Each structure stands twice: as structure tokens, then as C-alpha cells.
Amino acid sequence: MIKIIICGAAGRMGREIISAAQESHDFNIIAGVEAPDNPNIGKTIAGITIIDDLISVVPESDCVIDFTNHQAALENLQKVKDFKKPFVTGTTGFSDSEMQTFVEFSKQFPIFLAPNMSVGVNHLYKLVEDSAKVLSDFDVEIVETHHRAKKDAPSGTARAIARVIKGVRPDVGFIYGREGLVGERKKDEVCVNSVRGGDVVGEHRVLFLGNGEFIELRHYATSRRCFAAGTLEAVRFIIKKTAGLYGMQDLLVV
């Protein structure tokens, strides 16, 4: 059995991961962790006790999963560092300097970092890359839609899509939404649009717009189970790895 700790256990993704892990036959959840001021501290979720002291349980774990926020994730990463336990996070909203922390820490122990744990979304990245190459004269726009409670914009997945496009078209520049007399669309401009509302789990669309035609690549998550399943696959993958920074593309080529 793979012994895991889930940070952010009382959140939407945390609860989904608990459910998916309990349905699996190879995971043992030894604790759910939340911030000290979380009302679920001391309570149980699906039989899992929620605590606020990550360090007290890290030694007995095989892997720590984190779905919190960018500040809490970095704090959890720091706590795990001394034990060099594999660390899996799907948390988003990291700045460039915060991302560098992951790079540095990954020299000491294995870290799996992915803004989206869905297998489908990670295949979408490849489709976007191929389309950006082949449809070199087409304009590109990104539209992402999420539930009203999502705190960061654009989504980490939209940012990842933007990086894929930038890798193929290094001259592109990104803007975030349009308003007013913005003038004619610039040739190397890509607009990232964020929509928030309802209970939408997540939708990402990438439009390649040419003259007289356009192609739309779209991924829609119908439930969070796809992210939970991907997270557990990431755990199975990372516990066998040495120090390094890994992502879904590494998992999918195995």
C-alpha cells in the first residue's frame, strides 16, 4: 500500500482525491492536512482525520499530495524538504520566482508539478503544439472557463497552453482580455480570456483563426474525478523516481 498525505483535504480536489484513493486498492491515506484555522480540523472526512501539523505525519508517508494555494504549497514543500519525501502538487498561481523554488528543491528530492492532472488536457497540449506549427499563419486565442469560486486567473492550464504556443512561436506576446478602442489585432498577439461563473469544473478552448475558416481545440472536464485519477497516477509514478522535477508529460511517455 502506498501511504499518502493529502494537503488541502477539505477542499474540492482534496475530497475527490480521498474518494478516488479509497476506491483504489493500493493507497492508504494516513492523514488529511488543512490550515490551522480551517473549521474541519479535528473532524473526519470520509473517515480521514483532518489535522494541521504536516510535519508530524510526513515521516510515515510515502508521498505528500498538495492541492492548496501557492503560498501554502510552498510552505508544505519546505516542511517536506527535510524528509525528502516525494511531493505531488496540482496547485496553481505560482510566480516565476516561486517556480524557481521548485526547481531548486527538486535537486534534493522528487517533485511532480502539474497545473492540470487530466490526461486529456495534457494531450491537448500536444495538439496545440502541432497546430501552432502547422497553422503558422493562423491567429490564436485562448478561452478558459471555471466555477465562480476559482481564485486565480488565468488558470494554470491556460498559462501552460500559452507556454506551449510561445515555444513554437517565440515572437508572440500575450494580453489578458480586451476593452475599449484597442485597435486592430496585432499579428503576434494572443489574447487569454477568463470566464468565471456557476459550477463549471473546467473548460479550455484554443482557437486557431484563419481566413474563411477556424479550428477550435476544446477540453471540458465533466467532473474532478479526471484530476484525481491523474493525481494518483502521478503518485504511483513519482515514488519510483530519484530527485528531479517531473510533470504529466513525463508520466505519459512511460
TrEMBL record:
Pfam families, alphabetized: DapB_C, DapB_N
A GO term, aspect molecular function: oxidoreductase activity, acting on CH or CH2 groups, NAD or NADP as acceptor
UniProt superkingdom: Bacteria
Residues that coordinate or bind NAD(+): G8, A9, A10, G11, R12, M13, E34, G90, T91, T92, A114, P115, N116, M117
Keyword Amino-acid biosynthesis among UniProt keywords: yes
Any Gene Ontology CC annotation: cytosol
Function: Catalyzes the conversion of 4-hydroxy-tetrahydrodipicolinate (HTPA) to tetrahydrodipicolinate.
Protein name as it appears in the record: 4-hydroxy-tetrahydrodipicolinate reductase
Organism: candidate division WOR-3 bacterium
Lineage start: Bacteria, Bacteria division WOR-3
